[in-house]
Amino acid sequence: MSVNRITPALPPTSMQTFAVQAPLTSKRHWRKATCHEVNCRHWREGWATVLDESITKQHGVAQYIRNFSGRRFRETRADDGRTLFTFAAGQTCFNSDSHTMRDQDVPPIYLARGGDWRIDRDVRTTVHSGPDPWLDHLHSNLERVVSRLEIGE
């Protein structure tokens, strides 16, 4: 997806970017979650799985569902001979291992970076210890901007 931005009148070196982040790649900031916690559509509405048991791998999946999945389902045969498993809502889906959510016990990262989106984001980065020093930095930066605007710079 492309982003349409108006190019600022100031050079990127005159800019500062403030961010509060919990990077998706950070194992500290994210944790495994249940279907219920992420409001998974399959958990919420139920789902169906259609398998052609004449295919060895799909036959194995059907056996797993019947004998080991621990999920409630209704088993029927489709007109073409395939097996249809219909799962009721309110149970763990088969993709539950991929569900994650933000760990609210781990604080985000408070950053102030020199420059803006036009230059390398790692230049002159300050990592603040928490929200208060970050807000102080942000407010002092805004005060400088407002002062310069008031004197016509």
Trace the largest sheet across and list its strands: 1-7-8
Instruction: Report low-confidence residues grouped into runs of 5 or more.
Output: none
Q: Count of helical segments?
A: 4
Q: What's the end-to-end separation, in Å?
A: 35 Å
Helix content: 25-40%
Radius of gyration from the alpha-carbon trace, in angstroms:
26 Å
Helix/strand class:
alpha+beta
Number of domains: 2
| Main sheet properties | 3 strands, antiparallel
Q: What does the average pLDDT come to?
A: 91
Oligomeric status: single chain
Please indicate the percent range of residues in DSSP E strands (runs of 2 or more).
15-25%
Could you tell me the number of beta strands? Answer: 8
User: What shape does the CA trace take?
Assistant: elongated
Order of helices and strands: EEHHEHEEEEEH
Topology:
Elements: E1 16-21, E2 30-32, H1 35-38, H2 41-45, E3 47-51, H3 56-67, E4 73-77, E5 83-87, E6 100-102, E7 109-114, E8 125-128, H4 131-150
Antiparallel strand pairs: 1-7, 2-6, 3-5, 4-5, 7-8
How would you portray this structure in words?
- The chain is an alpha+beta fold.
- It is 27% helix and 24% strand.
- The strands form 3 sheets. The protein has a 3-stranded antiparallel sheet with strand order 1-7-8, covered by helices on one side. Strands 3-5-4 form a 3-stranded antiparallel sheet. Strands 2-6 form a two-stranded antiparallel sheet.
- The radius of gyration is 26 Å and the shape is elongated.
